[in-house]
């Protein structure tokens, strides 16, 4: 876990989410910057807390119009040294702002990818009133502890169920790939990637037309 992530969450007063983030692989600020709305919902972030974190991520990436309560340590640049008596003194290089990278819209017609064995186990455990009554952080810790302590044969049962779900999903995807919706989404992805590569939106294939053609 990086000190930058811990310091940022403490400053935003979101430190209670740190154990769940780290446990689910979000163990550095750079990784958290790529977190999605779905990830935040799955991790139990309250709506207001999601917006606080998303504003900080936007400020970190240098997105114009990012709303924050103060300057972000990721976007601040050190003051220049105007001391003429020490021209040879080293200057701290300005940190380059991270460019926000858009992501393609998800395929709303595709089969939904199944949950992992761990997520299914966690969902089942949360149905226990003794667990669901705990705080979010305590639930995350308890789920992780019980999963680690689960006997191999019981863990194997969850993993087998997840494997069967994945096989069913792959079969559904094979069938979906033969449909017109899949072809339209692939065309949308191709146009999106070309737009990303060129850095400007192609006038001949505007986003609105691709997306309106895809949504059926």
Automatic annotation (TrEMBL):
Residue span of region Disordered: 63-113, 196-216
Instruction: Reply yes or no: does the keyword DNA-binding apply.
Output: yes
Specify one Pfam family: HMG_box
Which ranges of the sequence are annotated as binding DNA? 111-177
Record keywords, A-Z: DNA-binding, Nucleus
Q: Does the keyword Mitochondrion apply?
A: no
Q: Sorted alphabetically, which Gene3D superfamilies does this protein's record hold?
A: High mobility group box domain, Transcription Factor, Ets-1
What cellular component GO annotations does this protein have?
nucleus
Any Gene Ontology biological process: regulation of gene expression
PANTHER family cross-referenced by the UniProt entry? HIGH MOBILITY GROUP PROTEIN 2 (PTHR46040)
Ranges for domain HMG box = 111-177
User: What molecular functions are annotated in GO for this chain?
Assistant: DNA binding
Q: Which PROSITE patterns match?
A: HMG_BOX_2 (PS50118)
Report what the protein is called.
Putative hmg box protein
């Amino acid at each position: 876990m990086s000190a930058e992530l811990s310091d940022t969450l403490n400053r935003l007063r979101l430190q209670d989410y740190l154990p769940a983030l780290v446990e689910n692989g979000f163990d550095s600020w750079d990784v958290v910057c790529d977190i999605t709305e779905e990830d935040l919902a799955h991790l139990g972030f309250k709506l207001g807390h999601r917006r606080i974190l998303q504003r900080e991520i936007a400020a970190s990436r240098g997105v114009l119009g990012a709303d924050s309560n103060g300057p972000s340590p990721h976007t601040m640049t050190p003051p220049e040294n105007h001391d003429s008596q020490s021209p040879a003194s080293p200057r701290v290089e300005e940190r380059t702002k991270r460019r926000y990278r858009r992501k393609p819209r998800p395929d709303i017609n595709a089969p939904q990818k199944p949950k992992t064995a761990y997520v299914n186990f966690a969902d089942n455990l949360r149905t226990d009133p003794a667990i669901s009554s705990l705080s979010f952080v305590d639930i995350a810790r308890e789920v992780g502890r019980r999963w680690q302590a689960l006997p191999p044969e019981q863990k194997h049962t969850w993993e087998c169920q997840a494997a069967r779900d994945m096989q069913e999903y792959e079969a559904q995807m094979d069938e979906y790939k033969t449909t017109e919706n899949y072809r339209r989404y692939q065309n949308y992805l191709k146009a999106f990637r070309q737009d990303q590569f060129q850095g400007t939106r192609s006038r001949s294939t505007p986003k609105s037309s691709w997306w309106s053609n895809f949504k059926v």
